[in-house]
Amino acid sequence: MLLTRTLSAVVLAPLVLLAIWFGGWAFAALVVLAAGLMGWEWARLCNGGQFGWRGAALVVTLVAAVVVFLLAPDVPALAVLLGGAVVATSLNRDSRPASDPALRSRRAATQFFLLIGTAYIGFACLAFLWLRNVPPGGRDLVFWILAVVWATDIGAYFAGRGIGGPRLAPRISPNKTWAGLIGGALAAGLVGVVAAGLIGRDTLLLVAGGIVLAVIAQGGDLLESWCKRRFGVKDSSHIIPGHGGILDRVDGLLAVLPVVFLYLWVMGEAV
Asked: Between the chain's N and C termini, which has fewer beta carbons within 10 Å?
């Protein structure tokens, strides 16, 4: 399993990094593809492995929002995302009568998760595009974000396995520990030190920001674990050998991207 995971990372990571480095159509194609695949995974996850018309509508919504963002201002893209998510999740081809309260509850829960998840994934994709294209340092910013998330995963894994100790959220993800959370945060802080030396930015800001984002990333990981447990699913898909699905690999990144975007947008800071 470890060998398979390593080989998958060795193949995929350079492709992702090159797309971010060159930007333009390569990066746009990466985000469009990722949005479509994550929409497919999320629709199946929330619907007992079934895709159907509603799932197809969700994928179209996510891809359309990304394409509109690339071609038009931000507000139309958000309108496409939110409006499409509402319309898509309203589709229901289940002809069974909903007189049973349990059936109504399951339908309502599925619809709610589909709606919220689509908006969550879509907003993260739009934030990814925006952050990469923020002049003059969008590329460096995105690389730092990826380094923070990856360092968090690695630090949490080794600290959790090496130290163990009290569980962080045993009902959601039994393997996660407080030691893993702290190890991930320290690894992300170390990335800030290295990044400050490479790009000449404020060390304290990058270290503190990395630690905060590490906690948020692990919160995103727990959120996806909770959703999968809620629907009785182990992996979002099996697209990536040894890793599961796209959502399983980017759950922390999906939580981090909107936070960084909102911070920069509210503060009005260039990067």
From this structure: N
Query: Which tokens in the block code for residue 36?
Result: 């479509």
Mean of pLDDT values over 213-242: 88
Residue 270 has pLDDT above 70, yes or no: no
Burial class (CB in 10 A: 0-12, 13-18, 19+), 11: exposed
First to last CA, the chain: 39
How far, in Å, CA of 250 to CA of 42, rounded?
13
Residue showing tokens 């898909």: 237
HSE-CB at 217 with a 13 A cutoff on CA atoms is 33
Residues near 245 by beta carbon (within 8 Å), at least 6 away in sequence: 37, 41, 235, 236, 237, 238, 239
Tokens of 6: 């390593």
Sort strands 173-177 and 167-169 into parallel, antiparallel or unpaired.
antiparallel
Cα-to-chain-centroid distance, residue 123: 10
Domain residue limits, the chain: 2-94+102-267
Residue-level pLDDT at 208: 94
- Is residue 209's pLDDT more than 70? yes
Q: 264 or 109: which carries more pLDDT confidence?
A: 264
